[in-house]
Amino acid sequence: MPKFEEPESIGKELAAADAAVPVHPRAEMVVVLAQQGIGRNEISRRTGISTASVSRIAAAHGIEFDGSQTEVALKARIAELKQRQAGIALGLVEDITSARGLLRMATTHRDFAFAAKAIGDLTQAAQRMTPEITEEEEMDETKQFLLDLRAGLGLMRVQFEQEHGVPLDSPEANEIFNRMRQEAKQDGES
Questions:
Q1: Which of 63, 87, 117, 172 gives 58 a disulfide partner, CB atoms 3.0 to 4.6 angstroms apart?
Q2: How far apart are CA 50 and CA 52, in angstroms?
Q3: Taking Cα atoms as reference points, which of 125, 123, 23, 100 lies closest to residue 11?
Q4: Segment 81-98, tens digit of pLDDT
């Protein structure tokens, strides 16, 4: 969206608590968008008002932009871009397979050279497009997996205790598990 020339009065108009001048409509848009939880840069992009003025307008209305939301949105956007990048890399691998078929069917040196060049170029492109997973990302994924596993096990524990009316770590629970194993074993034999 093209940037509009911003009247000098936009930021000052809202900053003055007892301003008798009517509020500029674009400044009102900033307030409405900020109240909806939209970030400063996105508001700036949508309205054409500079980020500094967006901050001044929001501050004049007691609105602060939450940096943690920006960080979460950024991480989500990066994950989305990596997913798209991986999709492109996968498409390139499929193209390499097609080019290999052309290489096998080549009847002239020219066709063979063309297919071989295509395979080389596609392979390089696929390697560049395959997203790298950093050690930090692997750790984050592992932590999230463990947190999800913990939550799932906790839920199973609660469900077991509600269903059977005994604590999971009690001798009665062990008896129930043994009985369930016996029944599963008998079902497997029949």
A1: 63
A2: 5
A3: 23
A4: 888 999 999 999 999 999
